[in-house]
Amino acid sequence: MTKAESYLQHWHAHRDVLFDLLKAVDEQHVNFQPWAGAMSFADLIWHIVSTGYFFADSAALGHASTRPQKPDLATIGAIESSISEWTQKTHDRIASITDEQFANLVDLTQLFGAKLPVAALLQTNLDHEIHHKGQLFVYARLCGADPLPFFVQRG
């Protein structure tokens, strides 16, 4: 198994839960914000999927990429389509990274003040997704979602 395949297996175990988490929330709650100034439920999902692609694309390129343009996320269907599209694009980008590239440095001095190895950047991506997915679980619970999916998919 390549390093990319190993990473993708772990990443999908977390990313793919977004679909089940979205299904647990009613359409009326896509714009829910737990406090003034917080990202909405839809915006937080977009933040996860767009940042994931940004990190993956940057890792493949060796330098900071550009963030994808945010689509209209007013409905559950639009959010689900966005998750699907950007999950596939992110998967494809990570799958293109060779084992040798995992040691390459990615120039992210503007963002992190340092150059990071591809492996460290992808780990940062996974940590970032897990962090924000945890927030989404809290959002969903505050919106009355019950039951909630397990935090990770296995098998």
Q: Which keywords apply here?
A:
155 residues, mainly alpha, Four Helix Bundle (Hemerythrin (Met), subunit A), two-stranded antiparallel sheet, 58% helix, 5% strand
Overview of this protein structure:
The protein is mostly helical. It has a single domain (3-142), classed as Four Helix Bundle (Hemerythrin (Met), subunit A) (Up-down Bundle), CATH 1.20.120.450. It contains six helices and two strands. The protein has helices spanning 3-15, 17-23, 41-61, 76-95, 109-112, 118-142, and strands spanning 105-108, 114-117. A two-stranded antiparallel ribbon has the order 1-2. Helix 1 packs parallel to helix 6, helix 3 runs parallel beside helix 4 and helix 3 (41-61) runs antiparallel to helix 6 (118-142). The longest helix has 25 residues, at 118-142.
Write the layout of secondary structure elements.
Layout (H helix, E strand, L loop, with lengths): L2 H13 L1 H7 L17 H21 L14 H20 L9 E4 H4 L1 E4 H25 L13
Antiparallel strand pairs: 1-2
Question: How do you describe this structure in short?
Answer:
This is Putative damage-inducible protein DinB. The relative contact order is 0.22.
**Strand order across the biggest sheet?**
1-2
Total strands: the figure is 2
What level of helicity do the residues show? 55-70%
> On the 0-100 scale, what is the average pLDDT?
97
What would you call the shape?
globular
Using the 3D structure, state the CATH architecture: Up-down Bundle
Strand-residue fraction?
5-15%
SSE order, one letter for each helix or strand: HHHHEHEH
* Low-pLDDT runs: none
CATH level 4 superfamily? dinb family like domain
Question: How many separate helices?
Answer: 6
CATH class: Mainly Alpha
Q: Mind summarizing the main beta sheet?
A: 2 strands, antiparallel
CATH topology description? Four Helix Bundle (Hemerythrin (Met), subunit A)
As for the number of domains, it is: 1
Protein name: Putative damage-inducible protein DinB
Family: Belongs to the DinB family.
Keywords: Metal-binding
InterPro entries: DinB, DinB/YfiT-like
